[in-house]
UniProtKB/TrEMBL annotation:
Pfam families: Band_7
Record InterPro entries: Band_7 (IPR001107), Band_7/SPFH_dom_sf (IPR036013), Prohibitin (IPR000163)
Principal localisation: membrane
Protein known as: Prohibitin family protein
Amino acid sequence: MANNQMELNFPKGGVFTVFIIIAVIILFSKSTVTIGPGEGGVVFERFGDGINTEKTYGEGFQIVAPWNEMIVRKVRQQSVSDEMNVLSVNGLEVKVSGTVWYEPEFSKLGLLIKTKGEDYENELLDPAVNAAARSVVGRYTPEQLYSSKRDVIEQEILDEVQKLLEDQYLVVKRVLVEDVKLPPTIRTAIETKLKQEQESLEYEFRLAKAKKEAERQKIDAEGKATANKILSASLTEKILQEKGIEATLELAKSNNSKVVVIGSGKDGMPIILGNQ
């Protein structure tokens, strides 16, 4: 029976060696972090002061102590869209939807996470955007919000947000107001008013055009009258007689006419009779 039993003989210290190898693999896996494109990382020191605010790690392969933790966040430009109900200057509730582009300061990522937490968008960005939007929209009427003031409102909201987030390690790059929704009755009234204003502008344009055309025709007529007056003053009887004679001679040369000169016309001009 002893012959049928298989005996496993490990080398002396083999179990300990396997244990060491496994431990090294585990420690290595916990000590290495790969930070992806457009990301940054900060170290949370478990036995230290928490978030290390002195250094932000960039893209690539990084090594940290196995008892610490690397917190990785996006540091490239990002966007967030939202829709909120706000009040216009006359107290009418409007719904504004827009998009904000932002990015954390790379070198201050540790301070941002330490002071505002990992969810700093909800803790810091959203309240600032909402406050700025309510402040700015509250300065305008629904008609201004709906029509011509969109670009001005965007810039004012951006200025307000940047002011609120100053020294907060989060940079807002741009604000876009995508849509302003008004109650149907108010929207219809505004559209009707805008249409009437457009028609009025078109009518005024036609009137101005007609007035300019009348002025042009008047100036043209006055110019022609002045020219005729000058021409009439310059035509003496002698000049007219000479012109008449020249015209008569030209007619006489025509191959299609037979010219007969009979006697004398008024003022000594010949009388021309002819046929085809």
